[in-house]
Amino acid sequence: MLKRLKFVIYTRPFIWFAFYLVQWYSRTLRLRVENEDCWKNLLDQGFPVLLCTWHQQFFSAIRHFKTYAGYNPGLMISRSHDGDLISGVANRVGWHTPRGSSSRGGRQAMQAMITHLKEYRFGAHILDGPRGPMGKIKPGVIRMAHAAGARVVPFTVTADKAWFFHSWDRFMLPKPFSRVCITFGPAVVVDPVDTSEGFEQQRRDLENLLLPRLYHFDKDKE
């Protein structure tokens, strides 16, 4: 029964259903977007831009990110079955999706993302995906920024009312009609460095910048 259910979930008709469900659900959210011009101005100046956020918070941005389709945006997504579903939805809102992760096909997908950033100058990245650990930035975002000369623009999502799943990232699903805010932070310049220590320092600096905006939970108090 479980195998049959998984088969249905990853079929093309279900992906279309998921796409329309996400669009419908997202329309119930009262969305506000802050500091969007900060990275659009960088694009106008010719800088590649790589938007990034936590896996916990990306759902709320899906509908609004459809408005970026004209920029030919790219997003690296894992080759898992869940990635098939996410990629199918992302493709339908105008995003290109090189497939791979740190555990499978990552090198090829990252090179495809770097090529995409150099050509189209715009993409996004999930910092701690696809399997965590929660709040731990993977080195891929730094490597892509170095190779493509991209500015890293972090964004975070807040909601006044939300459910949090008991998943590795405590995935956030804003409740219908809740107030949701997507806030873009200042661009982070990540220049290439010569040492592994310098690379790790850049990764850690970005992690420390974004950790305060991650929803944390004390398991003993849940």
Description:
The chain has 222 residues and is α/β, with parallel strands linked by helices. The protein has one domain (2-214): Glycerol-3-phosphate (1)-acyltransferase, CATH 3.40.1130.10. It has helices at 2-9, 12-27, 37-44, 62-65, 81-92, 106-120, 140-148, 196-210, and strands at 30-34, 49-53, 74-75, 122-126, 151-159, 162-164, 172-174, 179-184, 188-189. Strands 1, 2, 3, 4, 5, 8 and 9 form a 7-stranded mixed β-sheet that branches. The chain has a two-stranded antiparallel ribbon with strand order 6-7. A hairpin with a 7-residue loop joins strand 6 (162-164) and strand 7 (172-174). The chain is globular and about 45 Å long. Mean pLDDT is 88; it is low at 1-8.
Short description:
The protein is α/β, with parallel strands linked by helices and 222 residues long.
